[in-house]
Amino acid sequence: MPKLGELNYVKAIGPEGVDFALNKPFGGGGCGRYLADLGRIMELLPPVPARVLDLGVGSGWTSTFLARRGYDVVGQDICPDMIDLANQNRDRTGTGSIAFVVQDYESMGYREEFDAAVFYDALHHAEDERVALAGVYKALKPGRVCITVEPGEGHSVASAHTAEKYGVTEKDMPPHHIITLGRELGFRQFRVYPRAAEPEMACWFDRTRPLWPARPGRWRVAARFVRKAVRTVVKGARGSDQAFLFDTPPEAILRAGNLVWLQK
Ligand SMILES: C[S@@+](CC[C@H](N)C(=O)[O-])C[C@H]1O[C@@H](n2cnc3c(N)ncnc32)[C@H](O)[C@@H]1O
């Protein structure tokens, strides 16, 4: 009975877990990554004013940010205790237009009411993700978008202890699976964006070393070019080269926990 685990989750995590959920994204680790993910979602949503369906909303932190941005938000979750926390969160932050509802995303009845739908770390808890995505497809107005931010391949194994401890569902939910389902359901356009990971360094300076001798001269640039070419011939193209060379999305990106944008 995995849905029973989802329904009882808040009771099972105790006061510390509740405190973490209520203060998300600020308590505990991962704050920067959560906010970076949300930043990317904000960039990809249609402009305000717009109605957003926030699915598997948990304690509602994403909805409170979206409402502050000016969206009219419906945040839904199967767990009534989570929706209580989400309401507390809304009352505490006191911002924007949000309605939180107890609802199973696998049995929704919305019809062309929303401009966008967001699954943040929630679709991989579905018993039947196809049914959940079908409900979202119906809920969206024509041409509007669904954004998923979900863990990729390996998640179910990595989270087996959580699934066992709390009786919740923990599936792999990689982009290739979401896109395959989305295509079958009628979504027409698909994009994949990297999920926030460790900050990527743009460049690096060591002030103890002078810049000038380290500046790459033309021989150094040529050597780097040859090295890259040899590496491509011997080992094959890297992810970033592959899309450019072969016009096919690199497999690793479609297997990893990345953000997927689907347009109806
Ligand atoms: C990992 S939590 C993520 C919550 C929230 N999006 C966040 O970022 O904190 C997954 C959420 O999905 C909810 N959930 C699981 N199955 C669901 C279903 N069938 N319908 C609606 N919500 C569901 C759970 O109750 C839980 O709150």
Task: Walk me through the structure.
The structure is a single chain. With 264 residues, the chain is of the alpha/beta class. It has two domains: 2-197 and 254-263, Rossmann fold; 212-248, no CATH class. The chain has twelve helices and seven strands. Helix 3 links the parallel strand 1 (51-55) and strand 2 (72-77). The two termini are 32 Å apart. The relative contact order is 0.14. The mean pLDDT is 89. S-adenosylmethionine (SAM) is lined by residues 6, 9, 24, 56-59, 61-62, 77-79, 82, 104-106, 120-122, 125-126.
User: What's the main sheet like?
Assistant: 7 strands, mixed
Order of SSEs:
HHEHEHEEHEHHHEHHHHE
The average pLDDT is: 89
Main sheet strand line-up: 3-2-1-4-5-7-6
- Identify every distinct bound molecule in the structure, by name, code or SMILES: S-adenosylmethionine
Helix content: 40-55%
- Number of distinct helices: 12
End-to-end Cα distance, whole Å, is 32 Å
- Number of structurally distinct domains: 2
CATH third-level topology of the largest domain: Rossmann fold
| Rounded Rg | 21 Å
Q: By CATH's scheme, which homologous superfamily of the largest domain applies?
A: Vaccinia Virus protein VP39
Outline: globular
CATH class of the largest domain: Alpha Beta
The share of residues in extended strands comes to 15-25%
Topology:
Blueprint: H1 2-23, H2 31-44, E1 51-55, H3 61-69, E2 72-77, H4 80-93, E3 97-102, E4 114-120, H5 129-139, E5 140-149, H6 155-158, H7 160-166, H8 175-185, E6 189-193, H9 211-214, H10 218-235, H11 239-246, H12 251-255, E7 259-263
Parallel strand pairs: 1-2, 1-4, 2-3, 4-5
Antiparallel strand pairs: 5-7, 6-7
Helix pairs in contact: 1-4
